[in-house]
Write a structure and sequence with these properties.
Blueprint (H helix, E strand, L loop, with lengths): L3 E7 L4 E3 L17 H9 L6 H7 L8 E7 H9 L10 E5 L10 E4 L3 H10 L4 E6 L1 H7 L5 E6 L8 E2 L10 E8 L5 E7 L2
Parallel strand pairs: 1-6, 1-7, 3-4, 3-6, 4-5
Antiparallel strand pairs: 2-8, 7-10, 9-10
């Protein structure tokens, strides 16, 4: 069975974007230079938008993920920047009850998000990458197998939390920790049991 990984950058206080949303990398809360970036490029190149992969010369077979899941607000942030599908190298699903159209390369999911994820996990393939946002992460929490946090040494004060909405408490176990001179930590948590 395939694994669903919530692969997300967060501040020390657990926020993934500012209150209004938008591109979280443009706010200065997430460090885009440092030794953690090289590690990310080498080990998690599948998670990078296709433009970054092209610029870095990352090509070839996918190694970790072949599918990406995204909520409406995260998706619309890219569309607003003129990027209707940042993940052309992955099978891309956008979950929304209100969105009526998406790029031809994106599959719009308007129904039961948990049922769709269970269906995707039963299919053959590599891992499934949840890019955001916080509302979709809260909704999909029962099916998340791994939470991979790129924790940045910054505090935002307020914003969109990693899990934004109602959900039942759950527990994960720390499986791996990588420290970088940049101050960024990569934390991998696996679902207990």
């Amino acid at each position: 069975m395939r694994k669903l990984t919530y692969f997300v950058a967060a501040t020390l206080d657990g926020f993934i974007a500012e209150v209004g949303g938008g591109d979280p990398t443009a706010t200065g809360h997430f460090l885009m230079e440092g030794d953690h970036m090289e590690y990310l490029f080498q080990n998690y190149g599948d998670t990078l938008p296709y433009m970054a992969r092209d610029a870095l010369g990352i090509a070839g077979e996918l190694t970790r993920f072949d599918t990406v899941l995204e909520g409406r607000k995260s998706y619309e942030s890219g569309v607003a920047q003129g990027i209707p599908d940042a993940y052309l190298h992955l099978k891309h699903y956008v979950f929304s009850a209100t969105l009526t159209e998406a790029a031809p390369t994106v599959e719009l999911v308007r129904g039961d998000a948990l049922a769709k994820v269970k269906e995707l996990k039963r299919q053959e393939g590599l891992g499934i990458y949840l890019v955001g946002g916080g509302a979709l992460a809260a909704e999909l929490l029962p099916e998340i197998d791994e939470v991979f946090v790129k924790q940045h040494p910054t505090v935002m004060g307020k914003g969109i939390p990693m899990f934004n909405g109602g959900f039942s408490p759950d527990r994960f176990e720390l499986a791996d920790l990588k420290r970088f001179d940049s101050g960024v930590l990569f934390l991998s948590y696996q679902r207990r049991g």
